[in-house]
Amino acid sequence: MLVHSPLVGPTTWEAVACELRRRGHEVLVPELTGSLTGGPPYFPKQVHTITRSAAGRQVVLVGHSGAGSLLAPAGVALGGVAGYMFVDAGLPSPGQSWLQTARAELGEQLRTMATDGWLPPWPSWWGEDGLADLLRDPAVRERFASDCSRLPVAMFAELEPPAPGWPDAPCAYLRLSEAYSEPAERAKVLGWPVTDLASHHLAMLSDPGQVADSLLDLVRQLRRDAPPGAR
Fold first, then answer.
1. Of 44, 60, 117, 165, whose CB has the highest number of CB atoms within 10 Å?
2. 131 inside domain
3. 86 found inside a domain
4. pLDDT, mean over the chain
5. Alpha carbon distance 151, 10 (integer Å)
6. Average pLDDT, stretch 18-40?
């Protein structure tokens, strides 16, 4: 199950999902954008979307960027997953908010961008050329950006829900960019399999084949590390 960050849209994983299906794998991509409407709390709605999408199947939960904070509560709610994989993502911090764990300068940037409790879509945070530096194909860039919505400031102040007993399955980390070196190093200290790609934060859109290769390799390592009865 490929989980996109709540800050963007499911197009993030579209090309990788197609690549994995082409290779014969079953892939689920829940859409979290509907959780942004209706006000808080946001975490429960996002976790519910993930668990509903699983429909009783045992999955490997794969979370990109801001979806990292959803993997632990979603896995606990599912009552048993095959593994967890963090892709250029923060690791779970139950009881803390995004604003508490983010770099101070990024938190201040969000406060200055907010209008009436809402932030502009994530692609516009980085200026006119920021997204173009990552996604050089205009068609890919436009499709990704059009899938991103305005974001409620309250979501960033909401505390991550508890996840008692986590991790309850093997975990792995795929680092795409230098910005996520710190959680990748934490994953190594924890003894998780870690793959480092010299790429960028949205590599799944520009190089889905390479990302798919890395995900499948890490899944094999997760299966190797799982208890015999869970493989």
1. 60
2. no
3. yes
4. 92
5. 15
6. 95
Question: What is the 3-state composition of the chain as percent helix, strand, coil, each rounded to the nearest 5?
Answer: 50, 10, 40
Q: pLDDT per residue over 128-166, tens digit each?
A: 788 898 999 999 999 999 999 999 999 999 999 989 999
Give the tens place of pLDDT for each residue, 68-90: 999 999 999 998 899 999 999 99
Report the alpha-carbon distance of residue 158 to residue 207 in Å, rounded: 33
Of 105, 117, 10, give the one whose Cα is nearest residue 67: 10
Alpha carbon distance 200, 174 (integer Å): 12
Specify whether the CB–CB gap between 88 and 177 falls below 8 A.
yes
Q: How many domains does the chain have?
A: 1
In a domain, 186, yes or no: yes
> Encoding tokens for residue 30?
């829940």
Which CATH number covers residue 207?
3.40.50.1820
Range of the domain at 69: 2-108+155-226
**Distances, alpha carbon 88 to alpha carbons 18, 164, 185, 187, in Å:** 20, 24, 12, 12
Contacts of 198 (CB under 8 A, 6+ apart): none
Q: At what angle do helices 11-22 and 138-146 cross, to 10 degrees?
A: 120
Q: Look at residue 140 and tell me if it is in a domain.
A: no
Q: Is the pTM of this model over 0.90?
A: yes
Token digits for 86? 């963090």
Q: How far apart are CA 208 and CA 15, in angstroms?
A: 6
| Cα within 13 Å of Cα(152), Cβ side | 15
